[in-house]
Design a protein that fits this description.
This is Flavoprotein WrbA. GO terms for molecular function: NAD(P)H dehydrogenase (quinone) activity. It comes from Cupriavidus campinensis. The chain has about 210 residues and is of the alpha/beta class. It has a single domain, classed as Rossmann fold, CATH 3.40.50. The protein is about 45% helix and about 15% strand. It is built from eight helices and six strands, in the order βαβαααβααβαββα. The chain has helices at about 15-30, 45-50, 55-65, 70-75, 95-100, 105-110, 130-145, 180-205, and strands at about 5-10, 35-40, 80-85, 115-120, 145, 165-170. Strands 1, 2, 3, 4, 5 and 6 form a six-stranded parallel sheet that branches. α1 packs across α8 (about 180-205). It is globular, with a radius of gyration of 16 Å. It starts with a strand and ends in a 5-residue tail after the last helix.
């Protein structure tokens, strides 16, 4: 049987969400998945980015490390995991632009039945980490994805994260995700891969 194929499409400005994305990827690979790790691109130009210290430099470095997610990546995948920082309690414009670009696949029904999951980070405590993850559930439902939350299906969930997906609070980018938060993200990768594998097995024809 082929390996489950997992697309992790994320946006990150100051690396917190990037580190969670890498941990989700590590968990998925550990569970036997083939992974594509992709960073959504900015929708504003360098002049705007220079107004936030480090934004342009960080974006340039991350874009060198990761390809941009494409429609072909989403069609390829058995599971799509979205990652985003919080923007006013909701999804970042950059990741939303990628999701909006999947309208052609949606119209053709090519995303129906794929696994979907989410993770994210926020700068401040109570800054919208859970509301952000829940806000992504809505377009995921429209795309026809089978939404896979984390629940409390692993002991790591009692230390960090949320039942909706892995999260992290950076406290104005002073803190990076610690081992507990990264463990939740790795569990998310394993869980998504497990569900994707089960769905693939159910869909594969049985030999006569």
């Amino acid at each position: 049987m082929q390996k489950p194929k997992v697309l992790i499409a994320f946006y990150s400005r100051n690396s917190s969400t990037e580190l969670l994305a890498k941990a989700v990827a590590a968990g998925a690979i550990e569970a036997g998945a083939e992974v594509r790790l992709r960073r959504a691109r900015e929708v504003v130009g360098p002049d705007v980015m220079r107004q936030a210290p480090g934004w342009l430099e960080n974006a340039t470095a991350m874009n060198d490390r990761y390809e941009a997610p494409t429609e072909a990546d989403a069609e390829w995948a058995d599971a799509i995991v979205f990652g985003t920082p919080t923007r006013f309690g909701s999804i970042s414009t950059e990741l939303k632009a990628y999701i909006d670009s999947l309208g052609g696949l949606w119209f053709q029904g090519k995303l129906n039945g794929k696994v979907g999951s989410v993770f994210g980070s926020t700068s401040s405590r109570h800054g919208g980490n859970e509301s952000t993850l829940l806000s992504i559930y809505t377009p995921m439902a429209h795309l026809g994805l089978i939404i896979v939350p984390l629940g409390y299906a692993d002991a790591v969930m009692f230390k960090a994260g949320t039942p909706y997906g892995a999260t992290h609070v950076s406290h104005l980018d002073a803190n990076k995700p610690d081992e507990d938060h990264l463990a939740v993200a790795r569990f998310q990768g394993r869980r998504v891969t497990s569900v994707a594998r089960s769905l693939r097995c159910a869909q594969e024809p049985v030999a006569a």
